[in-house]
Amino acid sequence: MPTLTFPLSRIEGHAQIIIKLTAGEVQHATLQATELRGFEYFLQGVPAEQLPIIVARICGVCSTAHHLAAIKALEAIYQVEPPPAAVYIRELLMLGQLIQNQATSLFLFTMPDFPGSEGLPSMFEFGGDDANIARRALEVRRVGTELIGLAGGQFIHPIRAVTGGVSSPLPEDGVRALRERIASVLPLACELFERYWELFQGLHDRIGTLGDDTPSHYLASVEEGHAYYGGNLRVLDPDGVEQASFAPHEYQRYLTEQPVENSYSNATLFNGHVMRANSLARLNLLPRLGTPIADIYMLRFQREWGHPAHAILLFDLARGIELVYCLEKALEMLEHIPDGEIKAPYTPRDGEGCGVVEAPRGPLIHHFNVVNGLVEKARFIIPTQHNILAIEQALMVAARRYVHGDRIDLELERAVGRVVRAFDPCISCATH
Amino acid sequence: MLDAQEWIGQRRLAYMPLVLTADEFPPVDTLLVSGAVRTDEDLYRLRAASKRAGELIAVGTCAISGGVANLGDRDEVRDLFFSAMERRHVPRLLPKLRPVDAIVRVDRYLPGCPPMPHLFMLALFGSPDTRLAASVCIDCGRKKTKERPTQLRGLQEGLPDPGICLINQGYLCIGASTRGGCQAPCTKAGNPCVGCRGPSDSFISRSSDEWFNAIRKVFLRMTDIPSEEIERELHAPHLSLFVFQFADYTVTTRRPEQVL
Predict the structure, then answer these.
(1) Which helix (H) or strand (E) element contains residue A246?
(2) Which of residues 86-115 of A touch B (CB under 8 A)?
(3) Mean of the per-residue pLDDT values for chain A?
(4) Are A207 and A411 in contact (CB under 8 A)?
(5) Predicted local distance difference test score (pLDDT) of residue B251
(6) What percent of chain A stands above pLDDT 70?
(7) In this complex, how many residue pairs, one in chain A and one in chain B, have their CB atoms less than 8 Å apart?
(8) For chain B, which domains are there?
(9) Does B48 contact chain A (CB < 8 Å)?
(10) A49–B156: do the CB atoms touch at under 8 Å?
(11) Are A43 and B71 an interchain contact pair (Cβ–Cβ within 8 Å)?
């Protein structure tokens, strides 16, 4: 069976695409995750109180999400509620994570795919009027990093959030300085996003498709005005009707995890269905976001593509709307940092608990069993896993479009790269 | 790298799959390697890349010692792991996780988990005699008091006083002998130093036992916490990730002047 292998770049972590053909017909299209460290195994026997420090190391990019999901799972076990002022700081931390990630995915990963007939190898290659995109994109991204640094105490592997709350309040001068930074970067982000949208339209005109547009199930842990802190998990069915809403600890009744042949990543299903998570899932679950500029973009998006929207390249535009939303939301939240207790007392105890946050790629679930203060079992349901089967389905659609009985259109390689980047998978997390 | 923009226009990014699509590894002046060697493909790519590179800098704990995944080298976990993670047609897992310098020559080390952007810039553009703070303590700025705690507090237990040394408050903070230069973000936010930058110059070419002894002495001098308690806790997994990162002398000697 002829096999086409496409190594991937401009994604988080190591993966490749394998397409198998028989007599010019596409048989399989798979995403192979090719790295592994084995967190679920080596965490066995580790003292539970150290989890928030250790699991952040699952991923440098997503460390904030892992740090908080682990803390929330421990709080479920210890039966302690963090005070509102602490939750507020954690929400700012998640907004920082989202700003950083969405800026990276938009400008560093996907935007170079759009110009001309072949795209560019990286954002550093933009020329002409676009020559300063790299600098400006890193500037926007850096504000996300700075917000993580402010709210989390450290720009990667944050430490301010601790079981029961946070370890210290935010420094006032830092809050003031960051407010000014975000206010100055917001117009820059909008400008970049407008240009992004233009180039995106250019790509659409050139290739005549936005990829797999099969109506799908969507999974997200969001509600209007949210700050990615996570709560109940919600599922939208392919007709746009909310089909389920469940608490983190109930996830096993709805979500199943299965190994994927030839890959170090597992895949998740919702009641046996392929589903999608990440930016488009969130936008499909929310009629509006709740901040002024983001909602203007949201309206424009819905007018053009409908609600719910299904074509996979729209994940990219959805990410841009979220970037604007997170900047606006962070600015609004930094205006009114609440006073009050930042940490609740607790007594460590044994038990089982789950924690969920809405990470950039969707709901991240940490599930721990603690016996004698030590981790007996640690399970991580990673947002990228929710999308693995949807990615492979979209890869099939792309492969069938560009593989003809007697020839292969060279657009195929670019198309499969765009498909995967639309889902912004994080392979280090997916394999953990 | 992406959190520091100062390099743009000064150095050209030639290869970095994360942000740049390139078919093959080009010849480069400086090769920054992050991450440990876990699969046969990592091994192959590291060897191939190092042959085309001038200076090689190992960046971050995983590249320097293998990092967090070393927790998987415990026998009981390792067997389970290898039997469960058998997959076909993917890069094969090596029997043991290896640091970069177990495979190729490393010229310099940039430790830290995470390595800080300003240290990246220093590694690329700094003068060789730049002096960083000798230890995290010097960057920290918390005041030492006469308070002598009698027992250790849990890693995240209680709410630490913002101005007072964490050791005086009973936390197992190992900043006194951890390399400085990070500007102490953890202790400033009220979290004990876990030693992610590794031992300071005085301990870097000695055995990790000597580092442990030095930390024990700090606690003997400043607290009434039983020495055995400190001894036991120093072997906690979250510290051992970092404490041992320069300790594997069977492989190579890492000299203080190579470490930023």
Answers:
(1) strand A242-246
(2) 104, 108-109, 112
(3) 97
(4) yes
(5) 53
(6) 100
(7) 169
(8) 28-129 (3.40.50.12280), 136-243 (no CATH)
(9) no
(10) yes
(11) yes
Q: CB B22 to CB A9 under 8 A? A: yes
Chain B hits for A261, CB-CB cut-off 8 Å, are 87-88
pTM of the model: 0.96
Res. B244 pLDDT band, cuts 50 70 90: confident
ipTM for the predicted complex comes to 0.94
Does A122 lie at the interface with B, CB-CB under 8 angstroms? yes
Q: Which of A35, A33, A36, A39 is nearest to A66 (CA)?
A: A39
State the Cα–Cα distance between residues B254 and B57, nearest whole angstrom: 12
Please tell me the distance from the alpha carbon of residue A219 to that of residue A274, in angstroms, as a whole number. Answer: 10
pLDDT band with cut points at 50, 70 and 90 for residue B248? low
Measured between beta carbons, which residues in chain A are less than 8 angstroms from residue B236? 47, 50
- Judge: B5–A149 Cβ closer than 8 Å, yes or no: no
Cα separations (Å) of B39 from A7, A42, B46? 16, 17, 11
Cα separation, B64 vs B197, in Å, equals: 11
- Are the C-beta atoms of B67 and B113 separated by less than 8 Å? yes
| Both tokens assigned to B231 | 């001894």
* Class of residue A228 by CB neighbours under 10 A (exposed 0-12, middle 13-18, buried 19+): buried
> Regarding the domain with residue range A38-387, which homologous superfamily does it belong to in the CATH classification?
Cytochrome-c3 Hydrogenase, chain B (1.10.645.10)
Of A12, A47, A121, the CB nearest to B22: A121
